[in-house]
Write a structure and sequence with these properties.
This protein has one domain. The chain is built from 4 helices and 2 strands. The protein has a two-stranded antiparallel sheet. It is elongated, with a radius of gyration of 20 Å.
Length: about 140
């Protein structure tokens, strides 16, 4: 359910970043333009193809991997292991050319979920209530 709630926000943010004139050339930290894909530097490979180094996409993929590693295991361990490795890789390549603001939104969301999961996991389990005592 949480993913279904985020999809309209994701689409609206994508449209806002793509078409909003006010957001053009808006910067944040090292990101020069939130409406364009992040690119720290370009490397020319294979006869003229420019490969842009996208730090934000790599951070998003790493945070997604960590977030999934901290999640409780699913029913099928083989499927869980495949999802642990494949989803961050697929999302990293998918988000490589997305606007930086959208990738930043996803990165912050992952970091907040990691913090929430860490807080839940470090909290000691309460002992069961004894007979006749309130919980």
């Amino acid at each position: 359910l949480p993913m279904l709630v985020q999809i309209p926000i994701f689409i609206a943010l994508y449209n806002a970043l793509s078409s909003s004139v006010e957001m053009w050339q808006a910067s944040f930290l090292w990101i020069r333009d939130l409406t364009q894909a992040d690119s720290l530097f370009n490397v020319s490979i294979w006869g003229g193809y420019d490969f842009s180094f996208n730090l934000l996409g790599l951070l998003m993929g790493a945070s997604m991997f960590l977030q999934q590693k901290m999640s409780p295991p699913a029913g099928d361990p083989r499927q869980a292991k495949m999802m642990l490795w494949m989803m961050p890789i697929i999302f990293t390549f998918m988000f490589w050319s997305f606007p930086s603001g959208l990738v930043l939104y996803w990165l912050v969301n992952n970091v907040l979920q990691i913090g929430q999961q860490w807080h839940i996991m470090r909290k000691p389990a309460r002992p069961p209530a004894a007979e006749g005592q309130p919980a």
